[in-house]
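Pasting as-is:
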Amino acid sequence: GVVVFVHGTGSGRGRPRTRAAAGVLQAAGLGTLLVDMLTPDEVRRGAEPALSALAQRVIGVGAWLAARPEAAALPLGYFGSSSGAAVALVAAAQAPDAVRAVVSRGGRPDQAAPWLADVRAPTLLIVGGRDLAVLDLNRDAERVLTCPHLLEVVRGAGHLFEEEGTLQQAAALARSWFLQHLAAPESVGEQRHAS
């Protein structure tokens, strides 16, 4: 499968945390696509489009991938961090057939509240154990999500997962989720026959 990274405000594809998480997924054989959701002009002006407009950009990235011969058959996942998680959740709700799994790291699902019940892709919510406000928001989201979902709390982690080893734990959780949900059906069947 291939995973599109959806960054939060003030973050981008060049950030070390983003690259580290992508590296964990790549080492497991997953493709990753790190894109900046804001245009250079939007960054310069400090402007951020509406959530649904950003979600349409994510959907557009998925459509672009689906049109590429080398990626067309690969199942798609979204990995959103901070406010980017809300964008990923809205994109998953607006184009449910396009995405097979969503991971939210330190996400703000409350920002996507009107769309949460429409998300169909299995969704993993990863929150730092010391990020109490965001943890509460994710617990609230659990009550609204109707798709298969799981809340994982990384002990000792704050909002940005800067504490030693916490980003690696979050990336490992994401890797497992994506490997489970982005496996091609024939691969799953082959694994069953091999056991």
